[in-house]
Design goal:
This protein is α/β, with parallel strands linked by helices. It has one domain: 3-Layer(aba) Sandwich (Rossmann fold), CATH 3.40.50.300. It contains 8 helices and 5 strands. A 5-stranded parallel beta sheet has the order 2-3-1-4-5, sandwiched between helices. It is globular. The structure holds thymidine-5'-diphosphate. Thymidine-5'-diphosphate (TYD) binds next to helix 4.
């Protein structure tokens, strides 16, 4: 089992991987496929997501996605509060037990959606999340990149507050993910989400295998 290089205390021995990308990019499918492969190889895997995968997080998720109007700063703080609690009560304990944690969205979503999409500034929003998580960054972030119009067309059900933010907003968030990935290729794996799911899964496994064998 490998040790993430970003902001982990030495005692943390698990592997932390996040999945990012627009809505409808197929993150949940790829997370499931990766988890099956890891479990078959004998790893203990925790599947989780943001916002909302804790009791407090469920309240915050409902408020931010389905509540009344919320300004951009309040929105950024709610996502950060969810993340702080998620890391403190679920992610870090699992990593300390040496498990593999796969999360559907993490801090880079806040940088892309609130920092760039809402215009709050990428640096400020990143700093807020790093404060919230005491600096915990994934060892690997998989970006499933997709044209936002194509991604939203793959979605079913009523759109939430963020999905209703408009094409221009979603174009900015997509570009923000791509720019961030280009700045730190050691942490990111960028994939074209329209590729066949089995090909995407193979590319993700190859990268994760490298981290596990390190
Ligand atoms: P998600 O759970 O991925 O959406 P769904 O359940 O519809 O698949 O995320 C909900 C929305 O929240 C999504 O549009 C992206 C947005 N989001 C942010 O704006 N900032 C964040 O920090 C996170 C984690 C998500």
């Amino acid at each position: 089992m490998s040790v993430g290089t970003h902001g982990y205390p030495d005692a943390v021995t698990g592997l932390f991987v996040s999945f990012e990308g627009g809505d409808g990019a197929g993150k949940s499918t790829q997370i499931r496929l990766l988890a099956q492969w890891l479990e078959a190889a004998g790893h203990r895997v925790v599947l989780t997501y943001e916002p909302g995968d804790t009791p407090l997080g469920k309240l915050l998720r409902d408020a931010v996605l389905h509540g009344d109007h919320m300004g951009p700063r309040a929105e950024a703080l709610v996502y950060a509060a969810d993340r702080a609690h998620h890391v403190d009560t679920l992610v870090r304990p699992a990593l300390e037990r040496g498990e593999v944690v796969l999360t559907d969205r993490y801090l880079d979503s806040s940088v892309a959606y609130q920092g760039v999409g809402r215009g709050l500034g990428a640096q400020d929003v990143e700093r807020l999340s790093l404060w919230a998580t005491e600096g915990l960054l994934p060892a690997l972030t998989v970006l499933l990149d997709i044209d936002p119009v194509a991604g939203l067309a793959r979605m079913t059900g009523e759109p939430d507050r963020l999905e209703r933010a408009g094409d221009e907003f979603h174009r900015r968030t997509r570009q923000a993910f791509l720019d961030r990935a280009a700045e730190d290729p050691g942490r990111w794996l960028v994939l074209d989400a329209t590729a066949p799911p089995d090909d995407l899964a193979a590319a993700i496994r190859a990268r994760v295998a490298g981290l596990l064998g390190r």
